[in-house]
Amino acid sequence: MNERRARLALGAVVSLACCAAAGVVTAAVPRVKTTFPTKQGKPFQAPRTLASENGVLRARLVANESMVRVGGRSVLGRAYNDSFPGPTLRLSPGDTLLLTLVNKLRFPTNIHFHGMHVSPSGRSDNVLRTVPPGTTARYVVHVPLDATPGTYWYHSHYHDAPVGNAEPQVMGGLSGTLIVDGLTGRLPEALRNIVERNVVLKDVQLTKTDSIVFRSIDSGAPTTRTVNGQVNPVLRIGPGETQLWRLGNQSADIWYRLQLNGSRFHVIAEDGNPVGQVWSAKKLTLPPAKRYDVLVQGHGGGDYHLRTLKMNTGPAGDKYPTRILATVRPNRPALERAELPTSMGPLPDLQNMNVDRRRTLVFSENTETNKFFINRKQFNDNRVDQRVKLGAVEEWTIRNVTRERHPFHIHVNDFQVMSVNGRPYNARGLADTFPLPFRGEIVIRMHFVDFTGEYVYHCHILAHEDNGMMGTVLIEGPGRSGATSPQHGGDQRQG
Fold first, then answer.
1. How does pLDDT run across 66-88, given as a tens digit for each residue?
2. Are 170 and 461 in contact, with CB atoms under 8 Å apart?
3. 64-68 — which CB contacts under 8 Å span 24+ positions?
4. Which residues are within 8 A (CB) of 388 and not within 5 positions of it... i.e. 6 or more apart?
């Protein structure tokens, strides 16, 4: 990416040093210039939560360009309800979300319920819908009774020709967490009332006038890594205490490679899917849009840190330095560590299902023109790229011929990763976002169930999506939604 424009060549490499903002300097985390107050380290704060009552969540989100609090100061951004990130929407399986979206922006927008297995048509998760400026749109999202509990998110997904507008809207702040309850109910009884932390990872770049950079094109703009809009907040956890952390990367373009000093991440759900086999790791890579629900257990010995580590997304990609994201501080006498679960439920396994069709998608780019392609085509919402029969099991080979990694994402139906670069992959559960190796490929399987209609798949680096790396899939046949494609007779795309 750094070959075609300076989008994050320095804005990511010279990412804002959260550690410097906290007054902590080590050899691994060098001091860099910061535009934020030097005294950070305030108590961790979660975004405001809007929860369903009696099976219904009535929520009102106002999308506006307004002053928001980031890193302890007021900056001009684009946000829902003047909050960076937006409020958390909390639902249960079987609930209905009745959402009113008020567009006070100067340009069109819409909203996507990322990872949700719901209808893509009409007033549900319809990303081909347009909400013009100065108008109000109503969304009705029926959460299935069999919805998987875990962490999802919502964000603007508006795209118009010739260049989309998802990146500047999400980068400005138009995103928030969506939680489907029920995950803790699958934990051992001793862990069902543990502390939950909603950890929203989101970067921000600022202009000299304290306005968020909406399209990341300034190579000299420092990038701030924030947690819930805070710079290096303090999380408290007692030695031996077990907490549930909902990790979500809501950045438009930037990757995270997480490490919690002296601890491991015990993954109990991935992309809103409880895992069939709980697994642990010292490091977790989160491309844009990725979520992991993890159990963490505190330890003593003073403060330690949640960091994003140095990483490289490929010869044509970005290089990120180590940065401190949050300080973890012991806050009570030591506890005996609880026994952790080994499984969160049966593993959805497509390995032995009959495959109805195989397809190949090739991700490519032109570094001279900053254009991105899937199967040599740029996105066109008037074209159907893949037609699939409802109920089909398909195997897709996603090939990446570029020299940088791309996070592949598809709406509505999650997938099981079968192999990476020809080697079998041990998928502990389903996913909706997965990194494509540069000059490599993944093979995935999907079972297209319940819902007909038209939706999209794309690279979730939104600068790439906006510049063409997206395609459409139309699911045909009778389905639970009973809807047809919006462009073929369904609910209008406007309003």
1. 999 999 889 999 999 999 999 99
2. no
3. 64/104, 64/105, 65/104, 65/105, 65/106, 65/172, 68/173, 68/229
4. 357, 394, 448, 473, 474, 475, 476
